[in-house]
What does this fold into?
Amino acid sequence: MNRKGFTLVEIMIVVAIIALLAAIAIPNLLSARRTANTAAAKANVRSLSTAAETFSVAHSGTYPAKVGSATDAGGLYDFINSASSYCNASVQGY
It folds into this structure.
């Protein structure tokens, strides 16, 4: 009798190999995502700092009244949204 197919042991070995590869790959992928998010946050803070400095230069050395509250009407929020007139910045989505 000539049977074709895989035995249960062969299938279990393949599943074990896939599980081992997943156990190695998933933490690395999560770490890479965390590192990318950290880098993006640092870049955003740098952009905010640059925008505040540019605002200061454009407004006779004064900084926005409320840098921490950038959602207020006017001030730094509007200045950042119109940053394309001051630098080669683009809006970055997440």
Q: What stands out?
A: Helices lie at 8-58, 76-81.
